[in-house]
Amino acid sequence: MHELSICQSMLGIVEKTMAEHAGARLLRIFLDVGKGSTIEPVLLSEAFEVITANGPFEGTELVVNEIPLVGRCRACGRTFEYQEVALGCPECDSVDIEIESGLELAIRELEIDEDGAGDSPGGETV
Amino acid sequence: MAKVDVGKKILSENDRVAAENRKLFDAAGALVLNFISSPGSGKTTLLEATLDRMPSDLKVLVIEGDVSTTRDLDRVKAHGATGVQINTGGGCHLSARMVAEVLPELNIADADIIFIENVGNLICPSTYDLGEDAKVVLLSTTEGDDKPMKYPSIFHESRLAILNKIDLLPHLDYDDTRAEREVSVLNADCDFLRLSARTGDGVDTWIEWITKRLEEKRS
Fold first, then answer.
1. CATH number of domain containing B108
2. Which of A26, B42, B68, B202 stands the most exposed, by the fewest C-beta atoms within 10 Å?
3. Cβ–Cβ of A110/B14 closer than 8 Å?
4. What are the residue boundaries of the structural domains of chain A, listed by start?
C-alpha cells in the first residue's frame, strides 16, 4: 500500500546521500523489505519507475532483499518463519511469541558509478 | 563502481518528526492513543461513548483524520471534546508531519488524554509513528473472525485490540475466541477487550484501561 509515498521518502534519503558524491551516477538502491512491512516489492518497483521517470534517477534499479517474518517462542525458545496461517509455536503451541525479523523497511546501501559516465544498468551507453 | 553504506530506515524522516511530537506530548504528561481500524468498525462511535464516560477531571483532546469532511470532528465535539480535523485529501494514513502541523492549534500543555483517530484503513497507518504512546486497533464483529492473520502488520504494532459491536454476536457466526487467539499469536503483548460502543457494554473496562495507562505514564 502507498508504495508511491514510500518511494518519495526513499528518494529524500537517496538525494541527501548522492549530494555527498557530486558527479556520481546512481546505479542501484539495495533495500531490506520485511515480509511483514506491508510494502510489496513489485508495487514498489512500479512506483519507483513512475516517480523517477525523466529525472536524474531514471533507470536506477531497485534491488529488494525480502526478509522473512520470523518469530521466537518465549515459552520454549524455538524460532520459526510465519507461513500463511500461524496458530502458535509449531513446537509447543504457545502464543507467547516475539517477532525477531520481518518488519524492516530500510535502505541498506547504494551502488554508484563515481565518474558518472558509465553504462546504464540496462546496458545502454550514455 | 562503488558501494555507499546508507543503513537508514525509509521512514526515518517520519520517525524524526514523530519523536518531536512525542517530546511535546511527554512534556504535557498527556497519554496519546492512535486509533486504527477499517472504515466502519466504530472508531468515532467508540470515541463518543468514551467521551461520555471519561472522568470529568481529565482534559481530552481529539485529533481527527479523514480523507475529507469534518463529520467525525463534529461528532466528537458534540460529546464535549476539543479537537481539530486533518483532511488528507486522498492520503490513506496520517503522518507525523500532519499531526505536527496541527499541534499549535491545540492546548497540548493542559491535556491529559489525546485521542488520534486515524484514517479508516487497516494497513497503511500501521507503519507510521505519529508520536503516540500506543496504537489501538479496532475490529468489529461484522468483519469476520479471521481478520487478524489477514492484516498482521497492525496487530504486530498495537498495544490493544478492541472487538466492537459485541451486541450483534447473537446474530452472527463470529468466533471471538478465534480472533483473540490470532491477535495474541501475532503479538503476545497486545491486550484484547470486547465491548459495544453503541450499548456501552464493556466500555467501563476500556475506560479503566485508559486511566491505568495514564497512571503508568505519569508514575
1. 3.40.50.300
2. B68
3. no
4. 3-113
Total domain count for chain B? 1
Q: Does A4 touch chain B (CB under 8 A)?
A: no
pLDDT exceeding 90 applies to what percent of chain A? Answer: 63
Query: Is B148 a domain residue?
Result: no
Own/partner contacts of B212-217, CB < 8 Å, gap of 24 or more, are B213/B31, B213/B33, B213/B133, B213/B134, B214/B31, B214/B58, B214/B112, B214/B113, B217/B29, B217/B31, B217/B133
In a domain? residue B165: no
- Is B176 a member of any domain? no
Q: Is A34 on the interface with B (CB under 8 A)?
A: no
- Interface membership of A52 toward B (CB under 8 Å): no
pTM tops 0.95, yes or no: no
Q: pLDDT (tens digit, 9 = 90+) per residue, A65-118? A: 999 989 899 999 999 998 765 668 889 988 888 889 998 999 999 999 988 655
Contact indicator for A1, B92 with CB cutoff of 8 Å: yes
CB contact under 8 A, A109 and B153: no
* Residue B143 covered by a domain: no
User: In chain B, which residue's Cα lies nearest the Cα of A70?
Assistant: B186
For B6, which of A86, A105, A107 is closest by C-beta distance?
A107
Of B196, B181, B191, give the one whose Cα is nearest residue B216: B191
Q: Which residues of chain B have pLDDT under 50?
A: none
Task: Determine the residue among B4, B11, B121 to mutate to test chain A binding: the one whose Cβ has the most chain A Cβ atoms within 10 Å.
Answer: B4
Task: Please provide the CATH number assigned to the domain covering A3-113.
Answer: 3.30.2320.80
Q: What are the respective helix, strand and coil percentages of chain B, to the nearest 5?
A: 45, 20, 35
Q: What is the pLDDT of residues B77-93, one digit of tens each?
A: 999 999 999 999 888 99
Residues of chain A with C-beta less than 8 angstroms from the C-beta of B14: 9
Contact (CB<8Å) A2/B156: no
Q: Cα–Cα distance between B199 and B216 in angstroms, integer?
A: 29
Residue-number span of the structural domain to which B89 is assigned: 19-137+198-218
Write out chain B residues lying below 8 Å of A118, CB-based. 1
